[in-house]
């Protein structure tokens, strides 16, 4: 080992140059991480294959500016030098450096890190007066030469650089080591990878454009990092995430303070940031530092509904003044991929012969326009394109970016679906060959079978238990099954055994493997309770791996029909029909009885029964949307949900007791009291009092807030309660005090997700923890060391982020299909475009309404842009007239020459539904008041009776679907009964290749179902399942 010194010339956050001298040690043996190594290097972990045609070594400039090119999985054999990685760290910051580190760790990417600056014979000391970029290029070239010689010339090495002088100087010095510019490399070695070449051109144009920016300052410079840090500690500045109001993206944004020590006792809410200048180049999602303005400049939130990007004028649309500030610095950029639309030809600006400078409009209205230089401005008009931001200097009105990939023409279904996924950071790349190679094979020629070794280690329930599943119609991914049976009487009397059996996905998906495989075999992870038949007191509980054979695969409507004593066709019933049917029906009835008692126990603790809207789009054979049908609540939904909640709770207890510092649980913090203001004000206007001091008080208040004349009142109050809830979150037990484990919505002291490992990664982690807990109970240690508290908490945060993205994607995809349904209908003549709506919120210039027939929520304006207001005729119809508008707490009035019209909270009105097209953004539903009277009487609009056997406590209502929709649904059910699954599909439930429609359904499943089904964890439990507002 040789000791030397390394001199670094760095820049401080204030811009000053700093000379740093560090000790530097050189070694003769440094791992090369190539399978072709002849020197027996200690190559542990990921190594480069010898099957590639060459190895490629990017210099510091390419690694810094063209990282996105190197992320293409098709480009293999990449050797990142230590020199290049440090250049990325010092010039691009922590975010880009972490991105490079993730790339090096990812086994799906064929790249490694070579520590050239610690290798005795590849290290190059910096010469006196040598520019840093020249020294870095020389270091990488010497590393390339050493690497080629170290491998005995078995593989050519290509160094890629953007320095033309380096190409001229080094390209002919050593045989077997080639020096090319990046563009030439892509054209020579990867001519079929056109996307990479186009991305290179886009980034190169963006870098060239950045160098030609003007010097006139448009924004205030951001403060240095140390000034911001000191200001946050002292309380002068407030740290938080910028959230832009999508309805007033040009004018209103909010910063929710977090992690700061702000000492202002008056600051108990978000900080308002008004206008683009005060936002100071911060983009939605950025972590920022905010300075409060003087109190005389504080403003209030705008309370009026906004149509488009216009903003209502006048102080009457403002709420009470709130803390208002301006952004003084960016603590962390959280830029992502953005989908934009290229402008029409007349809006493009020629920059040179081959490129044009354009302002692309993002699909997300909260993101500012992005300046892009492109050669395809004319070709890609009206197309959706993925872009990435590069910079936003104080001299530029708009951020600079570059295009990455073209999605397709705006308005086409495939393009819009892809847009939703990209905008929510949901990436669905196809399985790689390596991942497919990890999957067990099951084919007609080689069917999968149970391993005899597994029979020995598992509890075999195939002959002793009646196991069945209850899922949505057509469900292929059956991962949860149930069993219930009587046990011999014990000392305390009659006993029952309840069993929840979940697909043992972790048997097939080994920790650290590439595959996220769906396991649909007969292997299961089971939780089985020995219960007192009368009180349901738990005598014993058993956890373990089992072998099961599902006797029946039921769908919800079929199971409910059996419970109701109706005639129903169960495909699995054989010749002994009557006896088997009686056995199945008895099991369902017992299970329902148990579920009612379990729910009653949680009710006593304060479990909430909240309300969400889940809408299903019915498609015909040509994939056209024929109807929008709200999900109908059935008691069997709640039965299955309650069993899944019970299993999740008991597994949470088990893993937390076994691993107090490193178990993955899920908690639901109590909501902030101010979030209940709308709920309380609305209930008060109807004569009800809502007590929000605890979940029990809230649940009891909601149960009492029932209007016998209109069940929708209670439903809307529950929707408002849902909207007030905080998000349920995953966490590691070592990172959270025990008193914060509580789940507010479910009223449980501990909770986790165990019951859906096929579609949730969190459940797979819990399965592994449960397996380790069982092994520890038997005296054996875990097969692999468990994740530490810190590692588990990082995973939990990642899952929480993905969960939020999936929930938002679910919401936007529902809005997409609602627009697709109404897009081709004439709102003036098509009776399906006229519907009954219920007012649930009053705003300064209109109201928000709910349309139960379609599960729609939207804004109805009572004042248009010309200043006219809605005036009611004698027949109840409405016209636009000159007049005034007055808002009150529980109603809003319009006054014209004709008279005064009043719209009350919870009033039924008639609205016309149309679609407002948008060239750059998503289409939106437009609602217009047609009449101040109900379209149909509330008594005929909703069905107040409960499903047979439902609890008296439940106030969930069922909408009556239009006759045409019912006919369409019946036709679909007939087609569903006619179609038969193959034996293989029926036995193993193997999914076919998904299309975009099924992908959207997966997004809905990833969102942990709807808000009202948050606790269950079983696949597709429906809107009737209870729980917390934000997915238990």
UniProtKB/TrEMBL annotation:
Q: One Pfam match, by short name? A: Rrp44_S1
Keyword list, A-Z: Cytoplasm, Exonuclease, Exosome, Hydrolase, Magnesium, Nuclease, RNA-binding
Report the EC code(s) recorded for this entry: 3.1.13.1
The UniProt annotation puts the region (Disordered) at: 931-953, 966-985
Q: Which Gene3D superfamilies match?
A: 2.40.50.690, 2.40.50.700, 5'-nuclease, Nucleic acid-binding proteins
- Highest taxon of source: Eukaryota
Record bears the keyword Nuclease: yes
Query: Where does the RNB domain start and stop, copy by copy?
Result: 458-776
Q: Which segments show compositional bias classed as Basic and acidic residues?
A: 971-985
- Name any cofactors this protein relies on: Mg(2+)
GO CC, alphabetical:
cytoplasmic exosome (RNase complex)
Q: What is this protein called?
A: DIS3-like exonuclease 1
Species of the source:
Oncorhynchus kisutch (Coho salmon)
Q: Which gene is transcribed and translated to give this protein?
A: DIS3L
């Amino acid at each position: 080992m040789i000791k030397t010194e390394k001199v670094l010339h760095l820049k401080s956050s204030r811009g000053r140059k700093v000379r740093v001298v560090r000790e530097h040690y050189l070694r003769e043996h440094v791992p090369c991480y190539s399978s072709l190594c002849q020197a027996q290097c200690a190559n542990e972990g990921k190594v480069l294959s010898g099957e590639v045609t060459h190895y490629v070594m990017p210099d510091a400039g390419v690694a810094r500016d063209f990282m996105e090119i190197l992320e293409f999985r098709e480009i293999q054999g990449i050797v990142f030098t230590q020199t290049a990685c440090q250049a990325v760290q010092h010039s691009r910051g922590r975010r880009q450096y972490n991105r490079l580190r993730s790339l090096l760790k990812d086994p799906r990417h064929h790249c490694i890190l070579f520590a050239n600056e610690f290798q005795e014979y590849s290290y190059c000391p910096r010469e006196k007066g040598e520019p840093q970029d020249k020294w870095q290029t020389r270091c990488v070239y010497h590393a390339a030469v050493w690497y080629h010689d170290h491998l005995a010339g078995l593989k050519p090495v290509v160094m890629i650089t953007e320095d033309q002088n380096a190409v001229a100087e080094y390209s002919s010095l050593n045989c077997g080591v080639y020096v090319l510019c990046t563009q030439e490399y892509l054209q020579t070695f990867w001519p079929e990878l056109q996307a990479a070449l186009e991305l290179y051109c886009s980034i190169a144009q963006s870098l060239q454009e950045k160098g030609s920016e003007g010097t006139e300052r448009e924004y205030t410079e951001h403060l240095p990092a140390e000034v911001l840090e000191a200001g946050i500690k002292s309380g002068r500045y407030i740290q938080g995430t910028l959230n832009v109001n999508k309805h007033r993206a040009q004018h209103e944004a909010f910063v929710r303070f977090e992690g700061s020590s702000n000492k202002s006792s008056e600051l108990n809410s978000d900080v308002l940031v008004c206008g683009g200048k005060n936002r100071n180049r911060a983009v939605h999602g950025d972590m920022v530092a905010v300075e409060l303005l003087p109190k005389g400049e504080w403003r209030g939130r705008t309370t009026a509904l906004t149509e488009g990007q216009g903003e209502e004028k006048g102080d009457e649309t403002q709420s009470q003044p709130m803390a208002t500030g301006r952004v003084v610095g960016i603590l962390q950029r959280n830029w992502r991929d953005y989908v934009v639309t290229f402008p029409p030809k007349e809006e493009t600006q020629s920059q040179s012969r081959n490129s044009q400078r354009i302002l692309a409009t993002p699909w997300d209205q909260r993101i500012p326009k992005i300046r892009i230089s492109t050669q395809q401005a004319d070709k890609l008009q009206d197309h959706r394109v993925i872009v990435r931001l590069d910079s936003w200097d104080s001299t530029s009105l708009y951020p600079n970016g570059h295009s990455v990939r073209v999605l397709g023409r705006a308005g086409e279904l495939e393009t819009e679906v892809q847009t939703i996924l990209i905008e929510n950071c949901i990436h669905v790349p196809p399985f790689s060959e390596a991942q497919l190679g990890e999957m067990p094979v099951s084919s007609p020629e080689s069917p999968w079978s149970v391993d005899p070794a597994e029979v020995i280690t598992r509890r075999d329930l195939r002959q002793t238990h009646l196991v069945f599943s209850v899922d949505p119609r057509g469900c292929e991914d059956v991962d949860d099954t149930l069993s219930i049976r009587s046990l011999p009487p014990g000392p305390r009397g009659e006993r029952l055994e309840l069993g929840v059996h979940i697909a043992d996905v972790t048997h097939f998906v080994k920790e650290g493997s590439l595959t996220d495989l769906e396991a649909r075999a007969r292997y299961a992870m089971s939780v089985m309770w020995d219960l007192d038949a009368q009180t349901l007191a738990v005598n014993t509980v058993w956890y373990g791996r089992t072998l099961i054979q599902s006797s029946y695969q039921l769908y919800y409507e079929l199971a409910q029909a059996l419970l109701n004593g109706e005639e129903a066709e169960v495909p699995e019933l054989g010749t002994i029909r009557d006896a088997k049917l009686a056995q199945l029906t008895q099991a369902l009835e017992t299970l329902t009885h148990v579920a009612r008692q379990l729910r009653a126990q949680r009710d006593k603790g304060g479990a909430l029964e909240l309300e969400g809207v889940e809408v299903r789009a019915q498609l015909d054979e040509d994939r056209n949307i024929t109807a929008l049908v709200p999900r109908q609540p059935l008691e069997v939904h709640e039965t299955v949900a309650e069993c899944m909640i019970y299993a999740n709770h008991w597994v949470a207890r088990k893993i937390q007791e076994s691993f107090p510092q490193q178990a993955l649980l899920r908690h639901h913090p109590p909501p902030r009291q101010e979030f209940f203001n709308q709920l309380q004000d609305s209930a008060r206007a109807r004569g009800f009092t809502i007590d929000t001091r605890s979940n029990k008080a809230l649940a009891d208040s909601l149960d009492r807030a029932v209007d016998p004349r209109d069940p929708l009142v209670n439903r809307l109050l529950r929707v408002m309660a849902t909207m007030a809830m905080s998000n349920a979150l995953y966490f590691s037990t070592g990172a959270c005090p025990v008193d914060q484990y509580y789940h507010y919505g479910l009223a449980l002291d501990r909770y986790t997700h165990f019951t859906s490992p096929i579609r949730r990664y969190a459940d797979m982690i819990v399965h592994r923890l449960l397996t380790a807990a069982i092994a520890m109970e038997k005296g054996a240690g875990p097969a692999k060391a468990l994740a530490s508290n810190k590692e588990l908490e990082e995973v939990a945060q990642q899952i929480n982020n993905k969960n939020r993205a999936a929930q938002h994607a679910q919401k936007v995809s529902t809005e997409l299909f609602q627009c697709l349904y109404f897009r081709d209908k004439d709102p003036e003549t098509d009776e399906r475009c006229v519907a009954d709506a219920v007012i649930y919120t009053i705003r300064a210039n209109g109201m928000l309404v709910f349309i139960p027939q379609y599960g729609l929520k939207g804004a109805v304006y009572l004042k248009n842009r010309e200043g006219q207001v809605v005036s009611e005729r004698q027949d109840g119809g409405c016209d636009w007239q000159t007049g005034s508008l007055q808002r009150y707490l529980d109603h809003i009035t319009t006054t014209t020459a004709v008279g005064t019209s009043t719209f009350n909270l919870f009033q039924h009105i008639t609205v016309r539904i149309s679609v407002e097209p948008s060239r750059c953004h998503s289409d939106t539903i437009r609602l217009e008041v047609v009449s101040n009277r109900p379209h149909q009487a509330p008594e005929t609009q909703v069905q107040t009776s409960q499903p047979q056997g439902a609890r008296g406590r439940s106030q969930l209502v069922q909408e009556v679907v239009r006759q045409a929709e019912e006919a369409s649904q019946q036709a679909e059910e007939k087609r569903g009964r006619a179609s038969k699954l193959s034996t293989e599909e029926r036995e193993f439930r193997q999914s076919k290749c998904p299309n975009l429609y099924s992908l959207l359904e997966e997004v809905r499943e990833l969102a942990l179902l709807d808000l009202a089904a948050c606790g269950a964890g079983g696949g597709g439990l429906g809107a009737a399942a209870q729980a917390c507002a934000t997915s238990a």
